[in-house]
Amino acid sequence: xxxxxxxxxxxxxxxxxxxxxxxxxxxxxxxxxxxxxxxxxxxxxxxxxxxxxxxxxxxxxxxxxxxxxxxxxxxxxxxxxxxxxxxxxxxxxxxxxxxxxxxxxxxx
Length: 108
Fold this sequence. Notes:
Largest sheet: 2 strands, antiparallel
Low-confidence stretches: none
Number of helices: 5
Order of helices and strands: HHHHEEH
Helix content: 55-70%
Distance between the termini: 43 Å
CATH class: Mainly Alpha
CATH architecture: Orthogonal Bundle
CATH topology: Arc Repressor Mutant, subunit A
Shape: elongated
Structural class: mainly alpha
Number of domains: 1
CATH superfamily: Winged helix-like DNA-binding domain superfamily/Winged helix DNA-binding domain
């Protein structure tokens, strides 16, 4: 069996790409911003904050969770979501390195 396209890139490159893809939808950005605003684990409140159906919000939450951007804890019959600090630390380091590198470049 042949190599997949992702096999040609480093683990870090693949990880950043998965995170960036998950952030590539405005509804997911809105969910992240809401979780940051409330600064706590929340359950059903997200659906009330977005102009989307519950099933659509659930799909966006699934994508964010699969990318490691949010965590979900089961509390009774509900899943409560909050920001996953570890993944945002990865993003912070990645973009800090880009900013530092581009600031010091003497090109075009």
